Amino acid sequence: MTKHQNGILRTEAVDLICGVRGHAISITTMQATSAWRAIGQNDSRNLELIGSMGSAAGIGLGLAISKPDEMIFVLDGDGSLVMQLGTLLSVGTARPSNLVHFVFNNGIYQTSGEQKVPGSENADLSKIALASGYKIAITIDTLQGADSVLRETLAQGGPIFVNLIISGQGELNNNPTKIEIIPFAKQVLHLQKVLLP
Amino acid sequence: MPKHCVGISADLILQAILKEKITHIVTVPDTHQKTLLTAIAEHPTLKLVEVCTEDEVVAVITGLFIGGCKPIALIQNAGFYACLNSLRGLSLDANIPTCMLIGEYFRDPDSSSRDNPIRVVNLMEPTLDIWGIRYWRLDFPDDVAQISNAISHAWDNSVPTAILIGSPTQ
């Protein structure tokens, strides 16, 4: 169940992002994590942030500043984003051109009982991101033309905000009922081995 | 009555930070460190990253660290309490070196921090103790040498540390 009647499936959203990822470093949190993992994207250039809800975009901002030659993809949730909504302003102030901030916007807190996320009735996250200083903010609520729109947007440089309207979960490969948590400290060490000479 | 803390030159602190090869200062501004913030903002190589909340300070430091930089935090005592969950989830659980310059807003220079009647001041040392976060004090100019200790401890042990600044920097 999600709040949104119209939109794309979570599985379709990760496929869409996967198609444009290339060598981007990805940071996933909340609802995006298991779907990203199910399509094999939890590789050596990926971080899974379980807990520390709201911090994914901040970590992405730090990574984008420290590695300006790397593309950084943040796969955030709407509930997670609004926990640290000010991060939009922090990103909009630093304006890293290599940061793409995807938000899986299903309008609810998926794991705690599907309560509504504050603002899900009337707040437009793309408008908030744009007003906060992101270079571009788009909303994707249909797969039709989404791939080309996304590619054209990415070509313009960031920071970019992509509001993905999620209307359902979709079937995950292997359909894990419980995600295996890899300690974040271990993931940090692995990613540093990849990134730092 | 002897003072328990005096204002320390911002330049002295800045030089100590530079000596440790710090690359970024991530901050939510602090009243006690006003002159230090100005000095950092005007420095040609040290980069200031301004964010909205202390939770973000911890997250941005995490990202900078992963990318090979050497950041520290500059925050206020009230902000320290605000970011405890991020310190737990990132700095402590993920072993992120997180050295924090913390201004003790409302600190009375005529008494110790623990004897201060205001909780935002008197709870600082006990809170750091409970969380197992080592701290050093910048109460007098000679204490500037402690900056190196606090930063080294954070990086040698991959933990958060704190440097408590009792009086407004000069």
Report the major sheet of chain B.
6 strands, parallel
- What is the helix content of chain B? 40-55%
| Poorly predicted regions of chain B | none
* Global geometry of chain A: globular
Could you name the ranges of chain A where pLDDT drops below 50 across 5 or more consecutive residues?
none
Mean pLDDT over the full residue set of chain B = 96
* Large-scale geometry of chain B: globular
Distance between the termini of chain B: 22 Å
Tally of individual helices of chain A: 8
Q: What layout of secondary structure does this protein have?
A:
The complex is a heterodimer of chains A (197) and B (170).
Chain A: E1 8-9, H1 10-21, E2 25-29, H2 31-38, E3 46-49, H3 56-66, E4 72-77, H4 78-83, H5 87-94, E5 99-105, E6 108-109, E7 115-116, H6 125-132, E8 136-140, H7 146-154, E9 160-168, H8 184-195
Parallel strand pairs in A: 1-9, 2-3, 2-4, 4-5, 5-9, 8-9
Antiparallel strand pairs in A: 6-7
Helix pairs in contact in A: 1-2, 3-5, 5-6
Chain B: H1 10-19, E1 24-27, H2 34-42, E2 47-50, H3 54-66, E3 71-76, H4 77-82, H5 84-92, E4 98-103, H6 119-122, H7 124-130, E5 134-138, H8 146-157, E6 160-165
Any overview of this molecule?
The complex is a heterodimer of chains A (197) and B (170). In chain A, helix 1 (10-21) crosses helix 2 (31-38), helix 3 (56-66) packs parallel to helix 5 and helix 5 (87-94) packs across helix 6 (125-132). In chain A, a hairpin with a 5-residue loop joins strand 6 (108-109) and strand 7 (115-116). Chain A has 197 residues and is of the alpha/beta class. In chain A, strands 1, 2, 3, 4, 5, 8 and 9 form a seven-stranded parallel β-sheet that branches. Chain A is built from eight helices and nine strands. The longest helix of chain A has 12 residues, at 10-21. Chain B is of the alpha/beta class and 170 residues long. Chain B has helices at 10-19, 34-42, 54-66, 77-82, 84-92, 119-122, 124-130, 146-157; strands at 24-27, 47-50, 71-76, 98-103, 134-138, 160-165. A six-stranded parallel β-sheet of chain B has the order 2-1-3-4-6-5, with helices on both faces. In chain B, strand 5 (134-138), helix 8 and strand 6 form a beta-alpha-beta unit. In chain B, helix 1 packs across helix 2 (34-42) and helix 3 (54-66) runs parallel beside helix 5 (84-92). The relative contact order of chain B is 0.22. The model of chain B has no long low-confidence stretch (mean pLDDT 96). The A-B interface holds A 47, 51-52, 54-67, 84, 86-87, 89-90, 93-94, 183-185, 188, 191-192, 195-196 and B 24, 26, 47, 49-53, 55-56, 58-69, 71, 85-86, 89-90, 93-96.
